[in-house]
Design goal:
The complex is a heterodimer of chains A (about 450) and B (about 425). Chain A has helices at about 35-45, 65-85, 95, 110-125, 130-135, 150-160, 185-200, 215-225, 235-240, 300-305, 355-360, 365-390, 395-410, 415-430, 435-445, and strands at about 20-25, 25-30, 45-50, 100-105, 145-150, 210, 230, 245, 280. Chain A has about 450 residues and is of the alpha/beta class. Chain A has two domains: about 20-230, TIM Barrel (Alpha-Beta Barrel); about 245-435, no CATH class. In chain A, the strands form three sheets. Chain A has a five-stranded parallel β-sheet. Chain A is globular, with a radius of gyration of 26 Å. Chain B is of the alpha/beta class and about 425 residues long. Chain B has one domain (about 1-415): Queuine tRNA-ribosyltransferase-like (TIM Barrel). In chain B, about 40% of the residues lie in helices and about 15% in strands. Chain B has helices at about 45-50, 60-65, 70-75, 80, 95-100, 125-135, 155-180, 195-210, 230-240, 255-265, 275-280, 315, 320-325, 330-360, 360-375, 380-390; strands at about 1-10, 15-20, 25-30, 30, 55-60, 85-90, 105, 110-115, 120-125, 140, 185-190, 215-220, 250, 270, 285, 290-295, 380, 405. In chain B, the strands form five sheets. Chain B has an eight-stranded parallel β-sheet. Chain B has a three-stranded antiparallel β-sheet with strand order 1-2-3. In chain B, α7 (about 155-180) runs parallel beside α8, α9 (about 230-240) runs parallel beside α16 and α14 (about 330-360) runs antiparallel to α15 (about 360-375). Chain B is globular, with a radius of gyration of 21 Å. Chain B starts with a strand and ends in a 13-residue tail after the last strand. Classes of the chains: A alpha/beta (about 450), B alpha/beta (about 425). Chains A and B meet through α11 and α12 of A and β3, α1, α3, α4 and β8 of B. Chain A: It comes from Ceriporiopsis subvermispora (strain B) (White-rot fungus).
């Protein structure tokens, strides 16, 4: 559980000594660490991220501001640990484990020195004033279960222009981060260095969590160069939001594996650069008559019997299953054709690109449902592939080799996402909220599309 | 189609029947959710099927626009396109022409309207409507009718009724010539507005064509405008009394619980409406005690499900009204959860009716439903009258029964209003 959406990079009023400003469903609110701890206590998540002071004001941030950020974040961690201790004072160590385990966001933004300083302070022996209250902890790090890195504030600090420059339409909530203009690979290199600066003083046993990685390329880089275990799925869900069905696998097929000549399922587009898209922009007119399954890289369950060794996408869009149970609402329903159907095990045919294309253009919600299920499954298969490669005898070397092949093949610039976003916006304007008002305006101006000149 | 009446209520005109279509057997009376653009909004066909639904509606007007007939022909029809392996019913497209297009002109040839994309004048003839429905491939298809608003009076109503009969003949011809008559079943639509004489004439003519028609719809009574409930039930009754017993009767655009049960009591077998799924997306949950407006603050701390006895995934999974209150306007998943519940509510309503009719206890079912749904507020007068006409007295043995004139529709309003 986190207080803020880690992907939200919009400008906020300045944080203060005893609060952060966050954007929540009811607008901007001030949130104090004490309040946050209360909420965590009520919600009882398994893990919660300690409230930290990350500035979301217009960068760059002064040295003074950074120092404050470190001091506050550390102080709030101390307070949180004290609160936790107080609550469990009456409990045994067993009782402690029912409290949410704490994850700490690594402060320091884009300054390697600051990051190192913050991490070192986690490992230092406690101040005398705190020692009693926090025993048996000897350092702050002992009370922490893992380390969190939010890439959005990092990206913003490293980029050369302000996110607001990209907002053509202020109500466009999809653009809360600058995504164009910087060479992604270069920024990723900077990330690795900064994250390592945070991790170097700390023990290696604790998990590292990264929020807002935006491509499998970036993920591979972080796994290899930093050693990150957990990533959020934001970019895959975001792709679903804008109508992109992911279609890639890791590791790549062996060069020796021939493409199935009988396959009519087209792989994603290859760009002028020679790089292949990571998925399909299903808004594109190219898919209106494409009746194949969503991803070429994986088979659907109903075709899988033909080639048993090929990987299958088991998502409910590519491999829908007959539900095991069907509600009956009267005794005579035993005569309906649904009765007993749950015992059938035949695989159903996949949902097609043409169908999802249709749903996207008609602004239907089920497009999103199908795409999210699919994209998360593709992402899951990606990570399974990474783990499989790491499990090989010289795992790290193998992973580097496979990562290089992957990065060589697939387009990191995500042109497909840009194109999809533009078309998403068009359809949203034509069919989304506010459309009736816009249509009325249009009708007022001319009668094209609604009037018929009839001479009868 | 194979249509067989299994049981008849000894008191009312209700019956239970089995309708075997090309994509499966449906038990009637039933309610059909509407998948306007080849999707029940937010749900996958697997989700819909597991709710116990095997007959839904697609909209010819919309599917003809998007994805268009070419795509549907390529893939082999709307069943395959949307992944729905059970029964589909399509309307003719006529209603949307009148309600959605600003300028539609009805001629003897057909309906002349402006294409929403190009602005070009386009003609929808009865033959063309049937052709489009052939390409869609629905198990039940509707004739193109000349539909007028139920508020219309004057010669236009009669003109529309007679034209509907002529268009029925053209639809029948085109359908029989197509070779699809054994897999797709054509329904006629009885028109005549709110005029009993016109209705009678229409019924007489259409019943003459009984052997060429698989079922009868009762049209022209629900155009979205406020219905005069008093006349509405009389028209339904008149039609249902006269229509042949061995043909299914379909009242188009009926979805409120009380309307559905009255129609079933009068002899109707099927109905469709966007109401339950649309109202779900607006945050209203349907229950046997009336609709609940989940967005009201009184549900913010209610940790019980909408209905403890409801088998839908939302209630059976224990999702609380408080959670739904929080989520329904923020996340589409809230809309999906309520949509599943409302579809199951409609199905339970009709399933309960089927059980009661089979057991000879339908009058008791009606009384119990109305007492639970309206008891605290008063019965709508038109329901009392309509059910009395088929031998059920809702007010029997009820002290201080309150009766409300007008449509008496039940809604929860904000206490802040």
């Amino acid at each position: 559980m986190t207080a803020r959406d880690p992907f939200d990079g919009r400008e906020m009023p300045a944080n203060g000594k005893g609060h952060v400003c966050i954007y929540c469903v009811r607008g901007v609110r001030k949130l104090s660490p004490a309040a946050w701890n209360e909420y965590t206590d009520s919600c009882k998540p398994h893990f919660s991220v300690v409230l930290s002071d990350t500035p979301f004001t217009f960068p760059p941030h002064s040295q003074k501001r950074l120092t404050k950020s470190l001091e506050r974040s550390t102080a709030w961690l101390v307070d949180t640990l004290k609160t936790v201790r107080n609550k469990s004072a009456a409990f045994s160590d067993e009782g402690l484990s029912t409290h949410a385990r704490l994850l700490v966001h690594m402060a320091g933004v884009a300054n390697a020195q600051a990051r190192r300083a913050f991490s070192e302070s986690l490992g230092e022996p406690l101040e005398a004033t705190d020692r009693d209250r926090l025993q048996p902890l000897k350092t702050l790090d002992e009370g922490v279960a893992g380390y969190v890195f939010d890439l959005v504030p990092l990206r913003m600090a490293l980029s050369t222009h302000h996110p607001a420059d990209d907002l053509t339409d202020p109500s466009d909530l999809l653009v809360t981060n600058p995504e164009k203009g910087e060479a992604p690979a270069q920024i990723s290199d900077d990330f690795a260095g900064l994250l390592r600066a945070s991790l170097q003083p700390l023990p290696v046993e604790k998990p590292r969590i990264v929020n807002s990685a935006r491509s499998p390329h970036e993920i591979l880089g972080l796994v290899l160069d930093v050693g990150v275990e957990l990533f959020d799925a934001h970019w895959a869900q975001r792709a679903a939001d804008i109508g992109v069905a992911l279609d890639f696998k890791f590791p790549l097929d062996d060069v020796s594996t021939p493409n199935d000549p009988s396959s009519t399922c087209a792989a994603p587009r290859v760009r002028a650069t020679g790089k292949q898209d990571l998925g399909h922009n299903l808004y594109s007119a190219a898919y209106a008559h494409d009746h194949s399954r969503l991803a070429a890289a994986f088979l659907d369950a109903s075709s899988a019997s033909a080639s048993p060794s090929s990987p299958i996408c088991k998502c409910a869009a590519c491999s829908p299953r007959i539900p095991a149970t069907h509600s009956a609402h009267s005794a005579v329903d035993a005569l309906s054709s649904l009765h007993g159907r749950g015992e059938t095990t035949t695989a159903l045919p996949p949902y097609t690109r043409s169908y999802v294309h249709h749903l996207l253009h008609t602004h239907e919600m089920s497009a999103h449902a199908l795409l999210v299920m699919h994209n998360l499954t593709v992402l899951d298969a990606f990570f399974a592939g990474v783990r499989a490669v790491l499990a090989r005898p010289t795992g790290s070397e193998e992973l580097r080799k496979e990562a290089e092949r992957f990065i060589e093949k697939y387009d990191e610039e995500m042109l497909v996402m840009e194109e999809a976003k533009a078309q998403w916006r068009e359809v949203d304007r034509a069919r989304g909220k506010g459309r009736l008002a816009r249509e009325k305006e249009k009708q007022h101006e001319s009668t094209v599309g609604t009037a018929v000149d009839i001479d009868l | 189609m194979q249509f067989e009446v299994l049981a008849k209520c000894p008191t009312t005109r209700a019956r239970v029947s089995r309708m075997k279509l090309h994509h499966g057997t449906a038990m009637l009376p039933t309610f059909m959710p509407v998948a306007t653009q080849a999707a029940i909004k937010g749900l996958t066909p697997q989700q819909v099927e597991s709710l116990g639904v095997n007959l839904i509606l697609n909209n010819t007007y919309h599917l003809n626009l998007r994805p268009g007939i070419d795509v549907l022909k390529e893939i082999g029809g709307a069943h395959r396109f949307q992944g729905w392996p059970h029964n589909l019913l399509t309307d003719s497209g006529g209603f949307q022409l009148v309600s959605l297009s600003k300028f539609t002109k009805i001629t003897e040839e057909g309906a002349l309207f402006a294409s929403p994309f190009t602005g070009e004048p386009t003609m929808l003839t009865p033959e063309e409507s049937i052709s489009i429905q052939h390409s869609i491939g629905a198990d039940i298809i509707m004739q193109l009718d000349d539909v007028v608003s139920s508020l219309t009076v004057g010669p236009r109503v009669g003109e529309a009724m007679w034209r509907t009969i002529r268009w029925l003949d053209r639809c029948i011809d085109h359908h029989l010539k197509s070779g699809k008559a054994d897999v797709q079943n054509l329904f006629a639509i009885v028109q005549g507005g709110l005029d009993p004489d016109l209705r009678d004439q229409c019924l007489e003519e259409m019943i003459k064509r009984k052997d060429k028609v698989a079922g009868y719809a009762i049209g022209g009574l629900s155009g979205g405008e406020e219905k005069d409930t008093d006349v509405f039930w009389r028209m339904i009754k008149q039609c249902a009394d006269k229509l042949p017993e061995d043909r299914p009767r379909y009242s188009m655009g009926i979805g409120f619980a009380e309307d559905l049960l009255v129609c079933v009591a009068l002899g109707v077998d099927m109905a469709d409406c966007v109401f339950p799924t649309r109202t779900a997306r607006f945050g209203v949950a349907l229950t046997f005690k009336g609709p609940l407006n989940i967005r009201l603050s009184k549900y913010a701390a209610d940790l019980s499900p909408i209905d403890e006895t409801c088998p839908c995934p939302t209630c059976a999974g224990g999702m609380s009204k408080a959670m739904l209150h929080h989520t329904v306007t923020l996340e589409t998943a809230g809309a999906h959860a309520l949509t599943q519940h409302n579809i199951v509510f409609q199905a339970r309503l009709m399933g309960g009716a089927r059980d009661a009719i089979m057991n000879g206890t339908f009058p008791e079912y009606l009384k119990r439903f109305f007492a639970n749904y309206f008891g605290d507020r008063g019965y709508p007068e038109w329901c009392v009258n309509a059910l009395r006409s088929v031998g059920v007295d809702l007010l029997e043995n009820i002290e201080h029964a309150e009766v409300i004139p007008g449509d008496g529709a039940k809604w929860e309003y904000s206490d802040k209003a």
